[in-house]
Amino acid sequence: MGQRRYMSLWFRHLMTDWYTRQKLALKESAFVFAATEKNRQVVTFANELSCAKGIHTGMVLSDAKVLAPGLEVQFANADPETLLHRIALRCIRYSPEVSVDPPDGLLLNITGCAHLWGGEEPYYKEIVDRFLAGGYQVRAAIADTAGAAWAAARFVQRPLIVPIGKHAEALRDLPATALRLPPTTLARLRKLGLSKVRNILDQPRTSLTPRFGKELLQRLDQAFGQREEFLTSVVAPVPYRERLPCLDPVATAGGIEYALTLLLELLCLRLQREGKGVRTALFQCYRVDGKIMGLTIGTTKATWNVTHLFRLFAEKIPQIEPGLGIELFTLEAPKIDDAAAEQEALWGGAGTMDLPQLLDRIANKVGGNAVARFFPAQHHWPERSFVRVPVGEPGEAGEWPADARPIHLLDPPEPIIVTAPIPDYPPMSFRYRNRVYKVVAANGPTRIENEWWIDNARPRDYYTVEDEDGARYWIFRAGHYGEETPAQWFLHGLFA
């Protein structure tokens, strides 16, 4: 395998950088996290600007506010280990062995990885630049041992890529803090004047263990490579994917349906145990000639109902061309969601279909964007008072306007010619597309003003009118009579 190499990532202001990513306004402010400890409020995490003012972790909050009068304080619970674990999962793209190094770092075994990026320098630059661009202040170092990389990232200015075999030289002049020792051990070392790593190396090993315990020599040997250090790597979540190889190539629709049923049963059983359900599923068929045929379905709500999912796929199975035969089937659920257990009907219910299942079948036939829901939007103008949300996507609940409005609106409103006895009275008749409609009943007007910040927006007076045939229309007058610009009438909607 060759010489082992390790990388240490040190996030100097991990939690405050993470919170600043959510609230960009804090980027130019001194900011800290605080918590109550032993009946007093202390700083738990501080950003770079607050550290520049002399604030540090463990400082009493009242003292910190004296140093920075405009200090921003956040009392929310902060969990650095959970955040580090999420970051570690993203770093698996750079190394298969990524270990969380609490409270603010990661350790990567990069042996055999850097050449995929063209060497250690471009590999180092790729990782560091990605985190810097994401808003995290990070320092990193590469060395022959995890301990040496950890020390270099925190105590060495340059070079941060320690050449192979040179880690011992880099460690000798570093402070004893670089050995990752507990505070009590460091305090005893300072008391005896052993403030540098070289001072500890000059002491007889037989005298170190009785005074400082086994951990000092263990950390020393790990840093210098005389004892192997085992890292506990994070494990990436297992994807929701099932595969079914075939002894003989499958070339019939019946065989494809049978393979799909087996895969759905396996996948849905796992999802059911974990309380999850399918939102998007991908069924792929690998042909013996190397071509891959695939089908994709989506659902409006998470489900692990095998029958329903099979029905969605079955409508698309004729699209699969098996050719000389299919040797491998896979089923993957790239998008899942929490799914509640469904109660079965006590009686009857055979062949019934609920609304989400019906919408799934329609959406998978004509496309997901063809089926939609409408939610109220915060606008006065009727044509902007709603938003269209594709089925299956969340929408913001709100209140619809209290006045009765037609379901079908003309876009844009179409001009009409109106006859009215006096200007503010309802119309007696109107002409639309060369046909005259006599009004026998009318209700209104309802004044609707546009938002004040929109220019050239004339107020509208809406009327609901009914003609001799019983059809109802929603018409409005834009503007007022007597203005410099004459008032205009429009037909905006048709009632069912």
Topology:
Blueprint: E1 6-11, H1 14-22, E2 31-37, E3 40-46, H2 48-52, H3 61-67, E4 72-74, H4 80-90, E5 97-101, E6 105-109, H5 120-133, E7 138-143, H6 146-155, H7 167-172, H8 183-191, H9 197-201, H10 205-212, H11 214-224, E8 241-250, H12 253-273, E9 276-287, E10 292-303, H13 306-314, E11 326-338, H14 355-366, E12 372-376, E13 386-390, E14 408-419, E15 429-432, E16 435-448, E17 460-467, E18 472-478, E19 488-494
Parallel strand pairs: 2-4
Antiparallel strand pairs: 1-6, 1-7, 2-3, 5-6, 8-11, 9-10, 9-11, 12-13, 14-15, 14-19, 15-16, 16-17, 17-18, 18-19
Helix pairs in contact: 6-11, 10-11, 12-13
Q: Give me the secondary-structure category.
A: alpha+beta
Report the end-to-end length measured between terminal Cα atoms.
76 Å
Rounded to an integer in angstroms, the radius of gyration calculated over CA atoms is 35 Å
Question: What does the largest sheet look like?
Answer: 6 strands, antiparallel, barrel
Number of strands: 19
Q: How are the strands of the biggest sheet laid out side by side?
A: 14-15-16-17-18-19
Tally of DSSP helical segments: 14
Helix content: 25-40%
Q: Per the principal axes of the C-alpha atoms, what is the gross shape?
A: flat
DSSP strand (E) fraction?
25-35%
The residue ranges in which pLDDT falls below 50 over 5 or more consecutive positions are: 344-351
Query: Would you tell me the overall average pLDDT?
Result: 85
